[in-house]
C-alpha cells in the first residue's frame, strides 16, 4: 500500500455519511492501494463515527467553515452548500503528499488509482459551465500554506457561487487554459444529469465511466429502493431517467450489502 497518498471525502452530518460510506466501500471493492480519509464535523453522531472507522483509515474532526454567503447561494438555489467551504480543510492533511478529493455523492465503478499520477489542481470540467472545473473530484497537494492562502482568498473575494466550487475555480484560475494534463477526462466525474442532457454522448462514451457523481439536489439516498426487485424509484412523483437507473441501483446494492449492516 501507498501510505502517503489518500482518497479524501467530507461529511458534515449523518446524511452525507451514508454517501461517504458507499464511496469508501466502492474504493475498497476496487482494491485501491491508497489510504481512505474522511473529514467530519462535530454534528456527526457517535454511531456514525464507529461505522466510518471500519471503512476509512483516518476519520478527521474539523471545524465547520460556512461561507455565510446567502446572496450567492440563493442565486444557486442551494442554501445548504455554504458548509462546503469545510472542504478546504483537506489541504491540512499534510501527512499525505498527494490526495484525491471526492464528494460524498460520488461512486467509483473501477479502480481509479491512476489519478495520483496527476498534479494539483487536476479536475474534470463542470457540465454546467465547462470553463470551470467541477469540485466533486480533484487531485491536490496538502499544504498549510495553500490552506492559509485559500482562507485568505475566501475572506477577501468570497465565492461567486457561495460554495467551494466558485472559490476553488477563482483560486486555481489557470485551470481552464494553462495545462491540458490538469483536465481530467469527464469519465472521472460524470455528472449523473449528463446521461439525459446529452444522451447520445452518454450512449457512445458512457460505458467507460469510472466515477459517477450524483450532482444536484436529488441524491441516491433520497430515492426509494425495493430490495426484492432491486429497483429504484423517486420518492416523489418526479421521474428518473432510464440511463441513470443502473448507477442508482449500484449505489443502493452497495449500501444494502455493505453499509447498512454497519449501522445496525
Ligand atoms: N457536504 C456535506 N454536508 C452538506 C453539504 C455538502 O458534507 O450539508 C459535502 C459532501 O461531501 C458533498 C459535498 O460537500 O458531497 C458537496 O456538496 P453536494 O455534493 O451536495 O453538491 P453538488 O455536487 O450537488 O453540487
Ligand atoms: Mn457532489
What characteristics describe this protein?
single chain; about 260 residues; alpha/beta; 6-stranded mixed β-sheet; 3-stranded mixed β-sheet; 8 helices; globular; binds uridine-5'-diphosphate; binds manganese (II) ion
Average predicted confidence as pLDDT: 94
**DSSP strand count:** 11
State the shape: globular
| Percentage of residues in strands | 15-25%
Measured between the Cα atoms of the first and last residue, the distance is 30 Å
Overall radius of gyration? 18 Å
How much helix, percentage-wise, in residues? 25-40%
Name the strands of the widest sheet in spatial order.
Answer: 3-2-1-4-7-6
Query: Uncertain segments of ≥5 residues (pLDDT<50)?
Result: none
How many helix segments?
A: 8
Order of helices and strands: EHEHEHEEEEHHEHHEEEH
The set of bound ligands, ions and cofactors reads: uridine-5'-diphosphate, manganese (II) ion
Q: Which sheet architecture does the biggest sheet show?
A: 6 strands, mixed
Brief summary:
The chain has 264 residues and is α/β, with parallel strands linked by helices. The chain is 32% helix and 20% strand.
